[in-house]
Write a structure and sequence with these properties.
The protein is mainly β and 89 residues long. It contains one helix and seven strands; from the N terminus they run E-E-E-E-E-E-H-E.
């Protein structure tokens, strides 16, 4: 049987849930409970050594890696805006 997943792409935090037994069940972030409950920060980062970071780890390093961090991108979705990081679009 296939599963249904719902994704809430928030400006500050995002969340995901699946249907189990006819009821939605939140998928917790890998970092555990955050300020937003099971939600995780809407951040994505690429480090200089090529790591991809998502959520809380990306948010934590945003101050030291501002050029490699994407945040507040939801406001640009649906437009022709492009993000270029470390030479990649």
């Amino acid at each position: 049987m296939s599963r249904v997943i719902g994704i809430d792409l928030g400006t500050s935090n995002s969340a995901a849930a699946i249907m189990e037994g006819g009821r939605p069940s939140m998928i917790p972030s890998a970092e555990g409970t955050s300020v937003g409950g099971k939600a995780f920060p809407s951040y994505v980062a690429f480090t200089e050594d090529g790591q991809l970071l998502v959520g809380e780890p990306a948010r934590r390093q945003a101050v030291t890696n501002p050029d490699g961090t994407i945040k507040n991108i939801k406001r640009k979705m649906g437009t022709d805006h492009k993000v270029k990081i470390r030479g990649k679009e």
